[in-house]
L-amino acid N-acyltransferase YncA (Nitrosospira multiformis), 165 residues
Amino acid sequence: MNIRQAVESDFVAMWPIFQAVIAPGTTYVFAEETSYPDAFAYWFAPGITSYVAENDGQVIGMYKFVANQRGLGSHVANASFMVNPRCSGKGVGREMGLHCLREAKKAGYLAMQFNFVVSTNEAAVSLWQKLGFSIVGILPKAFLHKSLGYVDAYVMHRFLDDIQI
Ligand SMILES: CC(C)(COP(=O)(O)OP(=O)(O)OC[C@H]1O[C@@H](n2cnc3c(N)ncnc32)[C@H](O)[C@@H]1OP(=O)(O)O)[C@@H](O)C(=O)NCCC(=O)NCCS
């Protein structure tokens, strides 16, 4: 697997992964009818750095990171991850997570914060905890899960001082 910075032309391959990830309505707030341009802007708007994970030249996952806040809050990074559901459980998320932590450290960030991890998203919560994140906040009933109804979302955080680059 190779992880590299994404270019705008990668979005053709990223779009079906985006659609497949949001369709179940269990992990991201995006409505299923989110448009191609909206999704494109999510990955490629100014200030956002996106990466793709490839296997044999095929995009199998992507992540992005961005400053979590402007100005005086801009030393904390925020990131989002999507793995092609057909490739889940094979270590792609873990590799992208580690890559992202290193890239954020290289870029000079002090910490990384995930603002909205759906509490019932076991794969994500477990992966982020294994990568050193703690749950620092609980947003009660912040996510309308397609089958479970209102569920909590977590704010997860880790400092980057121990990340080797
Ligand atoms: C969450 C996501 C990024 C994980 O990526 P992945 O490639 O499937 O996960 P990995 O194979 O790298 O698994 C890493 C760890 O995640 C956990 N994990 C993965 N799938 C799991 C599952 N179905 N249930 C519980 N834990 C799971 C395990 O702890 C695993 O640890 P291990 O490496 O010690 O076995 C991916 O499933 C995804 O894109 N999900 C939909 C979008 C999403 O939830 N994004 C994150 C939003 S915060």
